[in-house]
Structures are given as structure tokens and as C-alpha cells.
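Example protein as discussed:

>
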Amino acid sequence: MGRVLSALQPSGFLHIGNYLGMIEPVLILQEQHENFIFIVDYHAITVPQDPKKLREQILFALAVYLASGIDPQKTTIFQQSAIPQHTELGWILNCVASMGELERMTQFKDKSRNKGEQVSVGLFDYPVLMAADILLYDTNIVPVGEDQKQHVELTRNIAQRFNQRFGTTFTLPKPEIRTHGARIMGLDHPEKKMSKSAENPKNYISLLDDESAIQQKIMSAVTDSGKEIIYDQNSPGLANLMTIYSLITQKTFEQIQEEFEGKGYGDFKKQLAQALIIFLHPLQEKIHLYLKNEDELKRILHEGSLRAQDIAEKKMKQIRKKIGVTL
């Protein structure tokens, strides 16, 4: 049994891509491995945040985890900022990582484009904190989307360099990318990943969207000029919608093609919208129930943080001794 670590950044909402790409795989992994999942609130502040909203978003992220079926008895759920060892190790790894490595990070290039001096040092440096998040728990497996694979590779490079310099200390983690549905694309721009930061709300299906919003967004989703419901990567809009339909109904592409043989895009979109409504309704009810019990949410985070901190401190004692700061 290996150790698995996953993380989700708190935001005002989560979309179906977040659920299918990260949360759903964790439900399987928690039955197979020692599982850790945490809310990366320190990563969230790499861009400006309203403190009151951030607090609400931390609790919302936890409510989504629990409503989805992540079990605190099987998975250690905690808050990043509650474990000071994350930032302590982050600083130590800053002294091992190189500027060149961070400058090559694709996500930094994308997020900092055209922002000049407004870009925070945290946005540039957060991959090192992410490496600390992972290495602190001797993580074996990191479930990630394709866009985060580069960060796990950086983590491995930093760990190898540390091990060479100070002796074997860190486990080298491996990224685990979902083979089917690893990236859910934007409904308005199927060439780009569905994003919480998208300016157009028609880009995504929020986990809390009502029936009307889901229907409108799916019916207006970009497709090509074809007619048949056939999976083809050269038709990214339809391929993306078929992927979503496949994941939430557990049907293969072949079964979907048979289901809609002789029917058009309109029929398919109507059925997809209905399938999403049915899929999300019970999840939405559970999310709202959890959000009504703030004390219970805090208790779960507190207990998970105590377990995580015990593991983190044991690791930090080893690291401090390795680098020579323990007297």
C-alpha cells in the first residue's frame, strides 16, 4: 500500500472538470492506499484574495470533498496553513531549487503573461511549496491533471538533488494521470482546459449550477459543423462533451455512438444536460447540508490536521538533522 496525496485550491466554486479530473479518482484511491487530501490555502494567496471569502471557500472545498464521498475515516483531510512544516520545508527546498527550473514552469508563464511587475514572488515560487507539500509525507502517488505533471517532475528533481547532497531523505513521487478524461475542456473554447478563472461562465459547469444554467451552457457549447455523434479528437468540442457524458454515465464511446445513431447534436446535448442535472442534484444537496454545519467541518479539518502534523514533524526532524541545523 502506497501513500497518495491530493490537493485542491479553495475557490468560489468548483466545476465538473475538478470533480472528474481530481475528486473522483481520489474516491477510488482511498480504498486502495493510505490517502491524504488537503486544501491548499497558501497556494490560493499567490493571487489577491478577500480574507472573508477565502475562509468561506476553505469550508466550501471541504464540503465538496465530503459530499463527494471522501471519508475522513479513510482519508486524512487537512488544511495546508495548519501545518507550519509545509512552509518550513518550502524555504529549505528554495535553497535547493534553481531559478532556471522555476522560470520554465508553464503555468507561471501562462498566469503571469502581460502582468509585468504585478506578478507576486509567491506565484513564481509556489511550485517549490508544492514540492514541499508532496515530499513532507513521503508520497508515492500524486493524482494530477496533465497540466500539473510538470510540477511533480520538478518535485522529483528537487528531491533527487537533496538526496544526493544530504543522503537519502525523500521518496520520489510518481504522477498518476487519469487515462480517460484527464482534461475536461472549456465548453466555449474546447481547445483549452475548463477553468475556474475563465471570464465567460459558459466555459464551465459549476457543481452548484441549477438546471436552467446547465441546460443553457450545454446547449450553447461549441461543437463543429458535423452531424453524427462520433468520437473524434479532430472535433474537440464534440469529443469533450462525449467525454463528460461517458464519465458521468459510465458508458463507453461506442455505447454513446449507438445510443445516438441517427440523431443530431441537439438530441445529444439535451440528453447530456439531463444526465448532468441528475448526476449533480444529490451532490448539491449534500454540499448544502455540510455547509449548514460549520462546526462539524472545522472539527474534521482540525482532527485531520493533527494527524498530518504528527507525520510532518517527524519528517522535519529528520530533514533538520540532515541539513545540519539540529544542535
Notes: The chain has two domains: 3-176+294-323, 201-288. The beta strands are 3-8, 34-39, 75-79, 141-143, 174-176.
